[in-house]
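Task card 7
Instruction: Convert sequence to structure tokens.
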Amino acid sequence: MDSGGAAPRLPLNFLCALVVDSPADDPPSRMAAEQARSMEEGLGRRELLEALLRGPYDSSAPLWLLEAAVHSDLVRKPPKSDPLYVPSMDLALMALSHSSCTPQLRNESLRRCTAAQLGRLGSAQASDILADAVAEALRERGPHQRGMTVDLLNTPTDAQLVLRQHRLHSRVITAAVDLLPSFPVPDERGEEDTSTWLERWKAAERAWRTMWKQVVATHPEHHRLLVDWSDDNDAGHVVREHLLGSIPWDVEPGLLEEIAQDDLASFPHSVLITRMCRMRRDGATEQEVRDRFASDLAEARPQQRKGIDQLLSDDKYGLRYGCRAAISHAELAADGTWHYILHPNQAQQYGRPHSWRASEDQLVSLAQKFAEHAAVALMLWEPDPKGPVRSASDLRWVRDLLQHLPVVTPDVKEKARLICREARREVAGRRDYGRYGLDSDVQQARELLDTIERMTAEPLPDPGPARTASLGKPDQVTVRDLAGAPDAVLDDYVRRHQGNDALVEKALLSFASRAYRRDVSFADVLNRHSDPQGALRDLTQNLRRRLGGGPNLREAWVSAVLSLPTTDVDLTRALPAWTALKARGPRGQEAHPAVISVVRATLGDNAEAWQRFATSPASNAGPTAWLRLGDLLDAAATGTPWPTPPRK
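Output:
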């Protein structure tokens, strides 16, 4: 048989699957390499280059192949609709991590990369050699660490751009965080007025916090590395703050426990500040206060003792702040860093709850520990004419501690009632300014008061649907009717008409129109036939007449047949050729092993047969789409004319 001189045109996915387990001198491997060298740049060429690197050239690759793989990724452009998107660099990553890659090719390629492409290449899949090269390339680019500004959020440094890529290699992320903008230090005020200068500095600090929030949110697998790295510099507190308060659901349970416990350890210091400042406020001298709390001060860090001294000596502002330190700490924590741990169901994205890495028991335990510390602060609450309880934020922490405290004592209830009493008076005095004014906070405060008052009196408790349908007589029901039936209805219908092989065959064909069913499988229905294999072979052999339709129906049928636990050779050969060659295997394999086995068994090492098979008339649509795989393989192997398509 004459192939007509046509260029080989085996489906690329099939060719890719063939070469994955082939040696470099195998006919399909040589065919694939020649095709890859001559193809224009594009997705098909990329897939073929990748298959060659994963298969025949996995251990040793020619330089042209590595250069082609790198170039293919470097020239890719983001879509016009999303110019900030960075296309995948998986092919270049594979080439630059390859044992045959030279240092010269690696370094020259990295110099051609944008910062975002560097980040893609510095992924966790990179070899250590490539990761080190990416880290060094990043350090060479500079500028080195400088103070954070608001502008750097919109015009980020190379280090920031690299850190926006997910799943970085540990060596790359370490190099990148070393180069991040540092905490903004207030500069000279110059001619600015104080408020403008201060607001500019605060905006820079907010930008710095936002930058770190982006980093910890992007790299959950490196949280431990980030905590250890940041503990020695200014970023330590903000990294821990974000892990505990911004994305606690994404933090490894052991690390979350550690950070939460460290945060709780700061509560007693706030309580100490409150007690010392109140004693000073009530008439004691600074020395008397220090003597009274000497043992507690001895355990404090030097920086903490310095802060206490400043508060005790500042009669105007320091004492007032210090007297409320414990209450303020509990309020801010409940509303901020501890909010999601106290209310895991409120951790949502687009209305869907986040799945937590920490267990429910761990979250309950942490919430109880928070409540126990907050209860200590509650017992220090006292009326404050200059800072009355009048807003929702003044009350949430009380509601939260009552909700999570393991044992609510009479003293705790009494303190909560006193707070509610004051809050009722204050909230009653607040005016509502329509829907958009203070009424939102006023309403929240009233609801919180109702909740707290109920909880100090007594607690509270909470409940689902189904349906069926009728399909009529088996000899009148159509394949389309069966395809539209719910799983339970189809299963029950075929079961009730046990022994009706014609109905079973229609039910099998219905899977081509509705491939996905959760509660009934293709194999389940097939096993209800008196001759399962015979029926399947007959249906597949006469698929054009029994099923008909377009590519999607053929694809669904082939997928259903190949998904069976065992598929014999005759059945595989009866499948529509093009659709079978395009069918993917289990677990994401490029082609199905059963199809590859049949093709290899027929063509073997006959290079001419492979070339003839590559020019077969099989197609995705039209009459030749129904050509059977076995008929085409036999013609290619023997050199006989191509078969005609099956009849309708």
